Amino acid sequence: MNKLFVISGPSGVGKGTLVKRILAADRDVALSVSCTTRRPRVGEQHGREYFFITREEFESHIRAGDFIEYNEHFGNLYGTPRTFVEEQLARHSVILEIEVNGGLRCRDLMPEKTVLIFIAPPSPEELEERLAHRETETAEQRAERLGRVRYENEQKKKYDYVVVNDDLNRAAEELCSIIRKETNRN
Q: For labelling alongside 48, which of 79, 80, 83, 155 has CA 20 to 30 A away?
């Protein structure tokens, strides 16, 4: 059965890198593309990483009920387009890389299809170092992201799986194993 695999975890934990590995290893899984009001980072393209839209467009989609879930995160809106996910699920399993509240909302709406996987850092210090090396945020933005880690760690108890990203290859294999197991479960 096709499943909706929700991948969540703190900023800088390596979710995006792990998801790329999964997509390269498993042709029967597709990545959902979320909408956001944030500006594209260097190298990101509209429709590939995100659908980059204005706040006004986003709010119009909210009023129309077009999102499975949406949330404001660090001053920007993020949302999962309902039609896009439903079309993808009709063909194959879907990976959704979103924050914890959105993940829990997905399970509320699609409990029989949703599998929640939390990616955890090996330590808070390692996470702080990863964020600093990423060089995509200011020191203030990094501090804000690190301040959210405690809340996210509390929410991981509600997830089906927790994968510690202490070694990229091991964590990627563990994620692939979870996806294979859950996809084969009726």
A: 155
Outline where DSSP puts E strands in 105-146.
Answer: 114-120
Is the domain covering 4-184 a CATH 3.40.50.300 domain? Answer: yes
> What is the C-alpha separation between 64 and 128, in angstroms, rounded?
38
109-172-19 Cα angle (round to 5): 50
Say how far apart CA 34 and CA 48 lie, in whole Å: 9
Residue 59 in this model has a pLDDT that exceeds 90 = yes
Q: Which two tokens stand for residue 22?
A: 């999964």
Rounded average pLDDT over 145-165? 86
Residue 149's pLDDT band (cuts 50, 70, 90): confident
CA distances from 14 to 4, 87, 131, 170 (A): 19, 27, 10, 13
Give the confidence band of 128 by pLDDT, cuts at 50, 70, 90.
low
Domain boundaries, the chain: 4-184
8 Å CB contact between 127 and 12: yes
The single-letter DSSP state of residue 12 is: T
Tokens representing 5 are 């695999």
Helix (H) or strand (E) holding 35: strand 34-36
CA angle 13, 18, 23 (to 5 degrees): 155
Q: Is 80 helix (H, G, I), strand (E, B) or coil?
A: strand
Phi, psi of 116 (to 5 degrees): -95, 125
